[in-house]
From TrEMBL:
GO molecular-function term, one example from the UniProt record: DNA binding
Gene3D superfamilies (alphabetical): lambda repressor-like DNA-binding domains (1.10.260.40)
Pfam families per record: HTH_3
Domain HTH cro/C1-type: 8-61
SMART domains: HTH_XRE
This protein's name: HTH cro/C1-type domain-containing protein
InterPro entries reported for this sequence: Cro/C1-type_HTH, Lambda_DNA-bd_dom_sf
Amino acid sequence: MRSIGSAVREARRGAGWSQAALGRAAGIPQSHVAKIERGVDVRASTLRRVLAALGYDLALRPTVRAWFLNPPPGSHLAAARAFGIDLGQLYAGFSASPAERLDVAVHAANGLAEILR
């Protein structure tokens, strides 16, 4: 996931603005824009002003984990949960690394081979 600072820099460059121009549009010093782009903590109100100047807003969205563990009503995930699918286990599978998924598959295949003997 990219940082807020890099997202602001990308949006500023996409608008064809310098840091100074963005600072003027947001009503803050250029040095504040530079701090935001470097990832320095700034006040939320300052960040909102910068984003508004660029035509963006600050929105919260659930993480993938939160989406799986508490799906919105009416979503496909909520329907899967109602059907009895363990979304926590499904999320764990998605969040596992390729090596971890391979290990689980090998373990399952070995278990199946043992059963079939």
